[in-house]
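hey can u check if this looks right to u? its 203 residues, i copy pasted from the old doc so theres a chance i mangled smth
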Amino acid sequence: MGSTGLRDAEMKHLLFACLAFCLGCDPDLGSGFVAGSLELPHCDGGKGKSYTCKDGQNDCEAFDLKADFFALELYEDLGILRMQHGVQTLERSDALVFSIAHPSQVTAGTAQKVGPGEGIRGNLMLLELCGDSSQNLSLQGEITFTRWGTGEGDRVEGAFSDLKVIDARDETQVLGNLHGDFRLKIQKTKPFQKFPHAPESQH
């Protein structure tokens, strides 16, 4: 399997893992924002979208994910932190997703590298904004957790800046820069329970 096929397979695995576990997440938890600059060469219908500011503007917020749902899902050796617009299932949403290897080893107050081959990988999923696109957007940079825990009721808080959005099929192509922060409380829920706004399955 080529590198592109492998990345696509990893993306699908991440998508279905989040979908399966997060159907029970509470849509009222968490706060924060994700914003920055972003160039999307291929969006719906093959047309591009551009969200840019003047050159050198570090606090550019031309692109706003409008994140209003924040969650951390914990598995045995994996944590999935996501900042998402809306409470639909991930396969229909715009979301920033971090896959965190060995979440019990994360240290608060220390910048953690994000990128391929690092302990934290990131993806920008624009499945609502660019539903027809096959773009695979990965993230490179750093994230800092100012509060961290893995137990029920623990607070998780942090921030990131100058997080580069990369075309995962051509890692030399930087499509944008994102910054933001997040605050949430870990709440364990019953798996496989539908979101309030997601359609019930028919049997």
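The CA atoms of residues 141 and 163 lie 5 Å apart.
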